[in-house]
C-alpha cells in the first residue's frame, strides 16, 4: 500500500510511472530507452515506486539477442489506493469507491431526493460513510461533480439548484484530509472518456440531461476557459429572442434540445402526465410517428450545436452522452447527415461507451491524474 500519502510525484518519477502504465509489462532497461533517463536513475525511481506499492514485478522477460541476464518486468498496480467519486444532480446522488483504474469496489445511488445547499453536506457525509464502512485502505482523493459552472473548485453558477450559494469545497475540506475536487459534470464526463474509453488526444463530450454541457479535453487537460465557462454549449443561442433561459439569454440550445425539453414536448403531444427515457423507448418501439418526428427534430437541433462545437474546438471525436441517443443509435446518422460543413468531414460522432457512469469515471480520472501527476493518462482496456 502507498506509503507517502497524497504525494505529488516528481517529473521523472511520473515519467517512469507513465511508461509502465502505457506499456503494461516493461523492463528497467526499456524504461531507460523510452524516457531518456540513465539506468541508475531508473533503478532508483522504480525502487521508490515499488516501495510505495504503485508498481510490482510481474515476471521475467526475454534476454536480448546479445545474451545476458533476463530482465525483470514491471507493471502498474491499480489497487494501490482508492478514490471516491460523486455525481450530484438536482434530485439524485450517485457515488463510487474505486481503485485507480476505475474498478468499482462499492457503488451507491439515491433517487428522488432533495439536493440543496442545506442538504448536500449531510448527503455526502452519509454516502461516504456507506461507501467506506468496509475498507481501511488509503483514499487518495475525492471528486464531486455538480451540474453548473465551476472555476477552480468554486461553484459559480448552478441554474437548477442552489449549490452556488455555498463553498462546498471548503466545507468538505474541513471534514476530510484527502484532496477534494469540485468540477462540472460535463467536464468530468469528457475526462472519463479520455482516460478510460478512447484512444484520442482531443475530444468533446456532450452531456445531455436537463441541460446541455460540453466537456473539452486536449492532451488530458480540461479546457475550461478563464472563468470556467468554456463548453457551455447549451447556452449558445439557437433562436434569437426565443424561450427565456435561467442564464439570462433567450433562445438557448438547451431550451429546445435537452432531454428534459424532449420529455415535456412528448408529454404534451401524447397527452401524458410524465415522460422519461423508458417511456420514450416504448413509444419508439411501438413505431409512434409523433415520437419519431420529435426525435428527428431533436437530432436536427443538436446538430446545429455540434456544428458550432466543431468550428470552435476542432476535436477528433464528439461523444454524445444521452440516454435517448444510447437507446436510439440511428439518431447519430441523422446528426451526421445534417453536418454538411467541410469542418465536419473528419470528425467522429459516437455514443458514450461509459454512459451514465462517465461522470463518475471522470471524477476518478481527475483524482488519479493529480495523485500520479500524469495528465496524458490512459487507463482504458483495448
UniProtKB/TrEMBL annotation:
* Keyword ATP-binding (UniProt): no
Q: Which residues form a coiled coil?
A: none
Q: Which PROSITE patterns match?
A: ROK
Record bears the keyword Cell cycle? no
Q: List UniProt keywords, sorted A-Z.
A: Carbohydrate metabolism, Xylose metabolism
Q: Which domain of life is it from?
A: Bacteria
Q: Pfam families, per this entry? A: ROK
List the InterPro entries: ATPase_NBD, ROK, ROK_cs, WH-like_DNA-bd_sf, WH_DNA-bd_sf
Question: Which Gene3D superfamilies does its entry note?
Answer: 3.30.420.40, Winged helix-like DNA-binding domain superfamily/Winged helix DNA-binding domain
Give a short account of what the protein does.
Transcriptional repressor of xylose-utilizing enzymes.
Q: What family does the Swiss-Prot or TrEMBL record give for this protein?
A: Belongs to the ROK (NagC/XylR) family.
Q: Which PANTHER family match?
A: BIFUNCTIONAL UDP-N-ACETYLGLUCOSAMINE 2-EPIMERASE_N-ACETYLMANNOSAMINE KINASE, ROK (REPRESSOR, ORF, KINASE) FAMILY
Q: Per its record, how is this protein called by name?
A: MarR family transcriptional regulator
From which lineage does this chain's organism come?
Answer: Bacteria, Bacillati, Bacillota, Bacilli, Lactobacillales
Amino acid at each position: 500500500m502507498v506509503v507517502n500519502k497524497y504525494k505529488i510525484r516528481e517529473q521523472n518519477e511520473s515519467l517512469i510511472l507513465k511508461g509502465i502504465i502505457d506499456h503494461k509489462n516493461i523492463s528497467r532497461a526499456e524504461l531507460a530507452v523510452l524516457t531518456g533517463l540513465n539506468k541508475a536513475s531508473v533503478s532508483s525511481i522504480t525502487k521508490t515506486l515499488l516501495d510505495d506499492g504503485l508498481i510490482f514485478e510481474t515476471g521475467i522477460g526475454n534476454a536480448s539477442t546479445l545474451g545476458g541476464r533476463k530482465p525483470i518486468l514491471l507493471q502498474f498496480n491499480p489497487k494501490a489506493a482508492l478514490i471516491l467519486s460523486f455525481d450530484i444532480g438536482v434530485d439524485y446522488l450517485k457515488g463510487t469507491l474505486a481503485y485507480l483504474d476505475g474498478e468499482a469496489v462499492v457503488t451507491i445511488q439515491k433517487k428522488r431526493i432533495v439536493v440543496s445547499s442545506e442538504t448536500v453536506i449531510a448527503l455526502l457525509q452519509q454516502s461516504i460513510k456507506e461507501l467506506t464502512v468496509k475498507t481501511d485502505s488509503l483514499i487518495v482523493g475525492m471528486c464531486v461533480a455538480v451540474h453548473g459552472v465551476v472555476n477552480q473548485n468554486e461553484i459559480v453558477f448552478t441554474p437548477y439548484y442552489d449549490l452556488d450559494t455555498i463553498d462546498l469545497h471548503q466545507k468538505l475540506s474541513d471534514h476530510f484530509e484527502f484532496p477534494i475536487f469540485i468540477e462540472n459534470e460535463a467536464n468530468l464526463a469528457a475526462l472519463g472518456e479520455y482516460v478510460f474509453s478512447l484512444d484520442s488526444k482531443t475530444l468533446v463530450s456532450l452531456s445531455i440531461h436537463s441541460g446541455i454541457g460540453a466537456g473539452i479535453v486536449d492532451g488530458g487537460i480540461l479546457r475550461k476557459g478563464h472563468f470556467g465557462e468554456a463548453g457551455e454549449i447549451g447556452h449558445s443561442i439557437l433562436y434569437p429572442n426565443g424561450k427565456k433561459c435561467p442564464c439570462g439569454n433567450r433562445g438557448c440550445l438547451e431550451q429546445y434540445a435537452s432531454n428534459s425539453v424532449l420529455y415535456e414536448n412528448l408529454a404534451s403531444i401524447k397527452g401524458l402526465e410524465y415522460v422519461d427515457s423508458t417511456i420514450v423507448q416504448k413509444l419508439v418501439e411501438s413505431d409512434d410517428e409523433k415520437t419519431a418526428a420529435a426525435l428527428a427534430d431533436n437530432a436536427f437541433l443538436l446538430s446545429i450545436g455540434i456544428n458550432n462545437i466543431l468550428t470552435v474546438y476542432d476535436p477528433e471525436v464528439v461523444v454524445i452522452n444521452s440516454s435517448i441517443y444510447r437507446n436510439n443509435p440511428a439518431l447519430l446518422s441523422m446528426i451526421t447527415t445534417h453536418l454538411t460543413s467541410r469542418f465536419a468531414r473528419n470528425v467522429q460522432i459516437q455514443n458514450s461507451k461509459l454512459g451514465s457512469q462517465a461522470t463518475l469515471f471522470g471524477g476518478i480520472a481527475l483524482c488519479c491524474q493529480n495523485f500520479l501527476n500524469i495528465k496524458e493518462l490512459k487507463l482504458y482496456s483495448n
